[in-house]
Amino acid sequence: MNRRGSITIYLCLMLLVMISVLSASFVSVRVAAGRMQCANASDQAMFTMFAQYDRDLFDRFDVFFIDGSCGGSGLHADKLRERYRKAADYILHPNQGMPFTGSNLLKLETEECSINGYTLATDVNGSVFASQAADFMKETLGIQGVSLLLMRTQDQAVKTSGQEAAGEAVRKAGADTEYDDIKAISDEAKEKDYQQKMLEAEEAGAAPSATEAEIAAENAEKKYVNPLPDIAEIRKKTILSLVISDSSSVSDKSIRPGELLSGREKEVGVGVIDVPPGIGGYYERLLFDEYIMQHFGNYTDPEKTSPLLYPTEYILHGKKDDRANLEAQVIRLLAVREAVNLIALYTDPALNAELTAVSAGIAAMLFIPEAVGLIEAVLALGWAFCESLADVNALLRGMGNALYKDSMTWQVPVESIASLLAGGAESLARNVPGGITYEDYLRVDMLLKGGDDLVTRTMDMTEGVIRAGGRSAFRLDCCLESLSVEMKVRSEDLLLLTTEKKGSYREYTGKQK
Predict the structure, then answer these.
(1) At what angle do helices 451-468 and 282-295 cross, to 10 degrees?
(2) Cα dist from 30 to 7, 359, 436, 487, whole Å
(3) Whole-model pTM?
(4) Alpha-carbon dihedral sign for residues 293, 297, 298, 301
(5) Do 134 and 282 form a contact (C-beta atoms < 8 A)?
(6) What integer pLDDT is reported at residue 513 of this predicted model?
(7) In the chain, where are the structural domains located?
(8) Distance from C-alpha of 488 to C-alpha of 16, rounded to nearest angstrom
(9) Which ranges of the chain have pLDDT less than 50?
(10) Could you give the residue ranges of the DSSP H alpha helices within 406-499?
(11) CB 477 within 8 A of CB 123
């Protein structure tokens, strides 16, 4: 028997609702998958951007930054945006261009990509750059290494400052007196002694005989040497010629201020993201100073690939050429060592006894025994200065100095002071094993100096080294440390998905605070 099938209106409506629900669910799933894919694309694109760090900066200076110039001569945000967009599109359109598997099942299309903010290496007076440098040293040295460095440098800085203060107090005693003043007093005293001798001879009607002052002077000349004229001549010579046997070997390389990062208008970050703390604290300063010592050359270890051979001295003094920077550092060292040597002359029994005896002898030679105290102060200053010349010569040749001087570590005898006029510092200088070195003094000086200047000049030399390596258009103020990007993606031709992603090297390297 034949039966006819039929479908009711109710069932038709139910099927219509079910199909609509299934279709909506399908679209909803695709949109949700699109959201996930969009977020994944943002993450991967940001990772891709930060993976493209500047290799020269990392290889040479151990810091992570994106070259925002993209090989050009200025900051190119449009090229960075396009690079980000391409990296995101690779995730949004997997296997694009390949048959069968290359179709975009989620129907995602990038409509807009914009950079909302970025932080540059030079932002906030270089705090971004300095923080990365300090973090690198923290990771490299470890807790024990940092503790040892802290104790040693702090101890040297405290002792050096104390020696300078004590030496300054002693220095004031004879600071206003020059050898010419003493000579004028001596000439006057000799003239008086001569007139007195002639008067006595005339009254006695006999030939003039030697006075007590003349006899004392003759005896003193046989026993002692008067180094004061030589000291006066030494002080007239150029500093570098006194401490370096061949001052012509000093580098004459120079830089023009307009070529430096600090000499031009810098790029600044937009919507600066999570600025790091910089090196405001003592601990961070110490780490940054050690970063400078490990990444830049100095006179004892010249930098071959740099606009200056002695970049560390530039970082300390900021002069435009190597010779001027080295001279400034030598003057600084002489001041410190002179303070050390002055203290030794007055505190070491053997040295003080010799100082007193020689001063008395000079006073007798000059016919002014009453001025022995003044002569002692002038001699002490001059003798300490001459000893400092030998000290600095040793430092510049990579040798060590005694942090505290005594008769055993004293190098320049009174009778050898004249040899310094002919460049004799090198023959007199001696090494003190385990003593304070030239690089130790550089560390101390950096610790005592203002942090902003050090950071600025360090960035000058960093940029200069990269430029000297062949990238003449490189600019450190175009290097990005963090980035914020907003991307809008059309899903299903209906819905606009918006994602914003922020990233920074401090986050990716585990230094986010």
Answers:
(1) 30
(2) 33, 99, 71, 19
(3) 0.83
(4) positive
(5) no
(6) 45
(7) 154-266+304-468
(8) 34
(9) 173, 175, 207, 513
(10) 425-428, 438-448, 451-468
(11) no
